[in-house]
């Protein structure tokens, strides 16, 4: 069952849409409402075709024209929607490691939540877009156990193709011996097990771990690990348990309190709009007793708000 909020537009015509966008940007100023209406009602695959048609018809780059015409958060959101998912992720990671300092939260979010296929596509897109090796760039920009786990997450693992659960033994015991039962912590064992096992296998491991230790794996991670490495491992566990819940929590944290973490909000609303936005909305409503739609409405404004609400796809109040 499709759980995204954005679907293919019926009767789609790439050339017609390219012309509509050209006209919306022609002359002085631009028709922002027309731009956001059209782009949010097309799927990513259709948007990519519109970019190709625009190039054929006008000899111009649609993304470059949109960047020129639009500004601020609205521009960032619209431009993100125009990129294929793997290239969007590649751009986010490039921005996260560019210059002085690193946006660790962005690295954690993308690398902890993507499927095997999505990671494979991301590595290829990064190479194509920047003629650089993603793993080498991440190694050059991070350190310690955090770096080691990111590198493990970048490797496609064979066990993701397993169709039936694997008996969890002895992984839960290995985790216990690496943490709770050890003086100090064997971080390598945590990395190996959490980074190298399929979701089905790890869910069973977590159940067994709870039975044998009397506490959830998350509590042990908080007690045994620290810093960005701890945050990364907790994100991996959350995504194994429920990706929708992980993103619902990220969205809530991006908007609660003073100020909004717009980059996080944009990245998640764009990346999940054709995957599991309906599940995220459902979890959000249950967990926070308010709808995602309502929180976006209260926290944002203008065309930026209208675009985000279109991606949200409905109100659950």
UniProtKB/TrEMBL annotation:
<keyword id="KW-0963">Cytoplasm</keyword>
<keyword id="KW-0539">Nucleus</keyword>
<dbReference type="GO" id="GO:0034704">
    <property type="term" value="C:calcium channel complex"/>
</dbReference>
<dbReference type="GO" id="GO:0048513">
    <property type="term" value="P:animal organ development"/>
</dbReference>
<dbReference type="GO" id="GO:0005509">
    <property type="term" value="F:calcium ion binding"/>
</dbReference>
<dbReference type="GO" id="GO:0005739">
    <property type="term" value="C:mitochondrion"/>
</dbReference>
<dbReference type="GO" id="GO:0016323">
    <property type="term" value="C:basolateral plasma membrane"/>
</dbReference>
<dbReference type="GO" id="GO:0005634">
    <property type="term" value="C:nucleus"/>
</dbReference>
<dbReference type="GO" id="GO:0001786">
    <property type="term" value="F:phosphatidylserine binding"/>
</dbReference>
<protein>
    <recommendedName>
        <fullName>Annexin</fullName>
    </recommendedName>
</protein>
<keyword id="KW-0106">Calcium</keyword>
<keyword id="KW-0041">Annexin</keyword>
<dbReference type="GO" id="GO:0009888">
    <property type="term" value="P:tissue development"/>
</dbReference>
<keyword id="KW-0966">Cell projection</keyword>
<keyword id="KW-0969">Cilium</keyword>
<dbReference type="InterPro" id="IPR001464">
    <property type="entry name" value="Annexin"/>
</dbReference>
<dbReference type="GO" id="GO:0097190">
    <property type="term" value="P:apoptotic signaling pathway"/>
</dbReference>
<keyword id="KW-0111">Calcium/phospholipid-binding</keyword>
<comment type="similarity">
    <text>Belongs to the annexin family.</text>
</comment>
<dbReference type="GO" id="GO:0042470">
    <property type="term" value="C:melanosome"/>
</dbReference>
<dbReference type="InterPro" id="IPR037104">
    <property type="entry name" value="Annexin_sf"/>
</dbReference>
<keyword id="KW-0677">Repeat</keyword>
<dbReference type="GO" id="GO:0005262">
    <property type="term" value="F:calcium channel activity"/>
</dbReference>
<dbReference type="GO" id="GO:0019834">
    <property type="term" value="F:phospholipase A2 inhibitor activity"/>
</dbReference>
<dbReference type="GO" id="GO:0005929">
    <property type="term" value="C:cilium"/>
</dbReference>
<dbReference type="InterPro" id="IPR002393">
    <property type="entry name" value="ANX6"/>
</dbReference>
<comment type="function">
    <text>Calcium/phospholipid-binding protein which promotes membrane fusion and is involved in exocytosis. This protein regulates phospholipase A2 activity. It seems to bind from two to four calcium ions with high affinity.</text>
</comment>
<dbReference type="GO" id="GO:0051560">
    <property type="term" value="P:mitochondrial calcium ion homeostasis"/>
</dbReference>
<keyword id="KW-0593">Phospholipase A2 inhibitor</keyword>
<dbReference type="GO" id="GO:0012506">
    <property type="term" value="C:vesicle membrane"/>
</dbReference>
<dbReference type="GO" id="GO:0030154">
    <property type="term" value="P:cell differentiation"/>
</dbReference>
<dbReference type="GO" id="GO:0051283">
    <property type="term" value="P:negative regulation of sequestering of calcium ion"/>
</dbReference>
<dbReference type="Pfam" id="PF00191">
    <property type="entry name" value="Annexin"/>
</dbReference>
<dbReference type="InterPro" id="IPR018502">
    <property type="entry name" value="Annexin_repeat"/>
</dbReference>
<comment type="function">
    <text>May associate with CD21. May regulate the release of Ca(2+) from intracellular stores.</text>
</comment>
<dbReference type="GO" id="GO:0005544">
    <property type="term" value="F:calcium-dependent phospholipid binding"/>
</dbReference>
<dbReference type="InterPro" id="IPR018252">
    <property type="entry name" value="Annexin_repeat_CS"/>
</dbReference>
């Amino acid at each position: 069952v499709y759980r995204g909020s954005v679907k293919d537009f019926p009767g789609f015509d790439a050339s017609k849409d390219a012309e509509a966008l050209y006209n919306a940007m022609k002359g002085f100023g631009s028709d922002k409402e027309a731009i956001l209406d059209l782009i949010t009602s097309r799927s990513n695959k259709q948007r990519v075709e519109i970019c190709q048609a625009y190039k054929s018809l006008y000899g111009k780059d649609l993304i470059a024209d949109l960047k020129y015409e639009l500004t601020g958060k609205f521009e960032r959101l619209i431009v993100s929607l125009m990129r294929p998912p793997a290239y969007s992720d590649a751009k986010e990671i490039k921005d996260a490691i560019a210059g002085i300092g690193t946006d660790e939260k962005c690295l954690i979010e993308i690398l902890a939540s993507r499927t095997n296929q999505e990671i494979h596509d991301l590595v290829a897109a990064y190479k194509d877009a920047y003629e650089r090796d993603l793993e080498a760039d991440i190694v050059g920009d991070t350190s310690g156990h955090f770096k080691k786990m990111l590198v493990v997450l970048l490797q496609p693992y064979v066990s993701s193709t397993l169709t039936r659960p694997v008996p969890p033994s002895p992984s839960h015991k290995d985790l216990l011996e690496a943490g709770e039962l050890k003086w100090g912590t064997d971080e390598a064992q945590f990395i190996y097990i959490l980074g190298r096992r399929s979701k089905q296998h790890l869910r069973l491991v977590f159940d067994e771990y709870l039975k044998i230790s009397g506490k959830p794996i998350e509590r042990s991670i908080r007690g045994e690990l620290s810093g960005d490495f701890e945050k990364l491992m907790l994100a991996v566990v959350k995504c194994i348990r429920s990706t929708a819940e992980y993103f619902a929590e990220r969205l809530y944290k991006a908007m609660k309190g003073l100020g909004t973490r717009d980059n996080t909000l944009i990245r998640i609303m764009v990346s999940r709009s054709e995957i599991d936005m309906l599940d995220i909305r459902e979890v959000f409503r249950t967990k926070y007793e308010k709808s995602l739609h309502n929180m976006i409405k209260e926290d944002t404004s203008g065309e930026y708000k209208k675009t985000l609400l279109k991606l949200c796809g409905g109100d659950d109040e």
